[in-house]
Amino acid sequence: MTFDYNHPFLNGETKKLWIGGEWVEARSGETFECMDPSRGEAATLVSRGGPDDIDAAVAAARSALEGEWANWTPVDRQALMHKVAQAIDDRFEDLARIESIDMGAPLSRTALFRAWVKRTFNYYAALAASTRGDVFSNSAPGKFMAYSHKAPVGVVGAIIPWNGPMITQFWSICPTLASGCTLVLKPAEEAPLSTLMLAEIMHEAGVPAGVINVVPGPGPTAGNALASHMGVDKINFTGSTLTGRKIIEASASNMKRVALELGGKSPDIVFADADLDAAATGAAMACFANTGQICFAGTRLFVERSIYDDFVERVAAVGKMLKVGPALSDDSQLGPLTSQAQFDRVNRYFNAANADGARLVTGGEPLDIGGGYFVPPTVYADVSNDMTIAREEIFGPVLSAIPFDTEEEAIALANDTVYGLGGGVWSRDVGRVHRVAHAIKTGMVWANCYGVTDPAVSFAGTKQSGYGVKGGPYAIEEFQTAKTVWINMG
Ligand code: ADP
User: Fold this and answer.
1) Which CATH number goes with the domain that contains 301?
2) What is the mean predicted confidence (pLDDT) over 92-115?
3) How far is ligand 1, taken at its centre, from the CA of residue 223, in Å?
4) Is 161 close to ligand 1, i.e. is its CB under 6 Å away?
């Protein structure tokens, strides 16, 4: 490991697991190479957590849950969250750099998360201090009062994906701190570094030992141990639909609560009356942002036939203009794919598109840039909704452009998928925008924009894109259980 990143967290030492407020080695003594996808070489060694380490982390989380942390008042936790948010902000440049090194998104992207993280802490800190229960009027014979209050659900396990740990982990960290739960984070082996660095920052800002633990390790061993653990009360999973099914099965051990954000094949529908300049840029970025590695990416582009050829050319032109390069280069707009496995997978879809007879408009073959896992923004035209590239989640910058003739046809094609995460509609006709937004069977629809998110707004999927809400006032309830108390006033 000779490459010098000039980064305080990458000091040549093996990164350990964070359990019970300290760095510990994996019980097995094993490590793995954490790859830098821009170079195709290891950035650092990381301890490989396994089931024994998950056991230790869950024990630490349980002991914190039942210890002093239980006595923290809502306002105590709120104040802690503000301190943590400030500490993260103070170190944000280092965090953004390590995320870029680790999963390949350029600094132009990871630096943008600073404001989002601040907003998320602020929003959940407000919820921490404003939680309330209910008093129920009731007709039970006799005289009874019944009330419910919100108790923390308990020990939460969060299984984090590699395509955007920086964002995903806060959907678990913030509601954990706000609700008084405790947490075991299991980052993906492809990108564990920002989560590990955060553990240290949060500890220094005053998060008590055991409240947040981090155990990177393989999905089938460490991840499965967390999902099936008898001592875990809830699992938050973000990843593929295939793995989501395994999580549900593993969770049956103790019937823990499950929230799943899974795959997608989201439709983006462009009508001829749209602002076509805005729509072309919007539709391109809906698919190409983060090199296509976004669960709600708009990867099926439905275009009204009268503008189809021209519009597809415009989207392709946006793709051609985007600068693909190493994550740490100042002028990179898109980075590499995050892993060799993902690179191989996207290249297999290039072959599938050719075999199925899709017409390549731009991209379609790997880029040779310094040994990294680079592919270009790619547009296929004359795709039909039943081709492999239009049905399967690729998780790469690969757009399938499909023509339609009527609004009804566009809606039917958009809904013809097992997934239901995001969707877009571009039109100047207000009535049509609402009709289509309502008719698309997904958890979220963006009209004349794409992919806007905010911690105060619910983010959820439907169909095989999963269930459970992140963001918005309902999200904290996923970390709480309503405990009802009956008082005999007889
Ligand atoms: P991908 O297949 O694209 O890598 P996954 O859904 O498998 O995506 O990975 C998302 C997260 O799920 C990662 O942290 C990974 O380690 C974890 N994971 C993978 N397989 C399992 C499993 N069987 N049980 C629990 N977690 C898993």
Assistant:
1) 3.40.309.10
2) 97
3) 7
4) yes
Among protein residues, the one whose CA lies closest to atom 27 of ligand 1: 219
Ligand 1 pocket test, pick from 224, 243, 343 with the greatest ligand atom count within 8 Å of Cβ, gives 243
How big is the chain by its Cα radius of gyration, in Å? Answer: 23
What is the SS3 assignment for 1?
coil
CATH number at residue 52: 3.40.605.10
What is the per-residue pLDDT across 395-420, written as a single tens digit (0 to 9) for each? 999 999 999 999 999 999 999 999 99
Q: Which of 261, 393, 407, 478 is catalytic?
A: 261
pLDDT in tens, 289-304: 999 999 999 999 999 9
Q: What DSSP line would sit under 96-138, residue for residue?
A: HHHHHHHH---HHHHTTHHHHHHHHHHHHHHHHTS---EEE--
Q: How far is CA 53 from CA 19, 23, 48, 218, in A?
A: 8, 12, 9, 12
> Can you tell me which atom of ligand 1 is nearest the CA of 243?
6
Query: Residue 31: pLDDT above 80?
Result: yes
Residue 454's contacts (CB-CB under 8 Å, 6 or more residues apart) are 119, 471
Tell me whether residue 295 is one of the annotated catalytic residues. yes
Ligand 1 contact via 224 beta carbon (within 6 Å):
yes
Element (H, E) at 41: strand 41-47
What percent of the chain shows pLDDT beyond 90? 98
Residues 387 and 356 sit within 8 Å (Cβ to Cβ): yes
Query: What is the span of the domain harbouring residue 32?
Result: 17-262+465-485
Residues 235 and 382 placed together within one structural domain of the fold: no
What CA–CA distance (Å, rounded) separates 103 from 92?
16
Asked whether residue 168 falls in the same domain as residue 258, the answer is yes
| φ, ψ dihedrals at 208, nearest 5° | -65, 155
Q: Is 261 a catalytic residue?
A: yes
Indicate whether 331 and 215 sit together in one domain. Answer: no
- For 33, residues 6+ apart whose C-beta sits below 8 A from its C-beta are 42, 45
